Amino acid sequence: MPELPEVETVRRGLTPTMEGALLVRAELRRPDLRFPFPAGFSALLAGRRITSLGRRAKYLLIDLEGGDVIIAHLGMSGSFRVEEGACAALPGDFHHPRGKDEKHDHVIFHLENARGPARVIYNDPRRFGFMDIVRREALEAHPFFRGLGEEPTGNLLDAAYLAMRLSGKTQPLKSALLDQRTIAGLGNIYVCEALWRSGLSPLRAAGTLVDTKGRPKAALVRLTEAIRAVIADAIAAGGSSLRDHIQTDGTLGYFQHSFSVYDREGKPCRTIGCGGTVTRIVQAGRSTFYCPKCQK
Fold this sequence. Notes:
Blueprint: H1 4-18, E1 22-28, H2 41-45, E2 48-56, E3 59-64, E4 68-73, E5 79-84, E6 105-113, E7 116-123, E8 130-135, H3 159-166, H4 173-178, H5 188-198, H6 218-236, E9 279-283, E10 286-290
Antiparallel strand pairs: 1-2, 1-6, 2-3, 3-4, 4-8, 5-7, 6-7, 9-10
Helix pairs in contact: 1-6, 5-6
């Protein structure tokens, strides 16, 4: 499933085409994705101007004139592609073919922007993605967003905040970090990478990073900095492009070439002077990759 950096990359890729454009009509080629489309979805979108594109956790947010917001989730295999101009040519330098089989093109946004007509096409072979529409003022109360923690890209994520969330927790550190009520949008890949960068074991009890007065220990300060840094690095690299995910112009993200532990089972740890070997374990049904020698 695409993680936060992948969704942020999609948002940035769609913004030049969609932001400020008139959404002439939305073409739905089936009645549902993972869930049925909202009643009258196409009619609600027709003739509306797109004011901005945002993101919350792993959800893409498309704000419309009048106060409605389209919520889009990519699921396991969802992706957008952009076609602009009369020839509908795909922009970008393609590193491998896009999924362009029309039988998987389930939603087409027909747009008119400053450069002329454009189409933004949502393709999803597995149909685990979904779309919804809500009022902007009701967004935080929506079931998808209610109770989400702070964003790892915002200034509100600091060691004091994490200390408050982790204090007294006996569950493994990795499990605590994957809880979306703690940090919104932080997923399996980047938790593994952040724990390696901060030298912390995924098996360590989360509460051990907080002192008896509820203050963050030095290890939690390191972890907070590592989380922010690994997310920033992944966004700068265009995401990881695991499995089906690729950018809106068809190019791949390259952060996967910088993985230090994720998917590197049996390979040497990249910590200078460590000499350990990356190990894979399973936690709550998810693969965890770490170095038992230097991550304590």
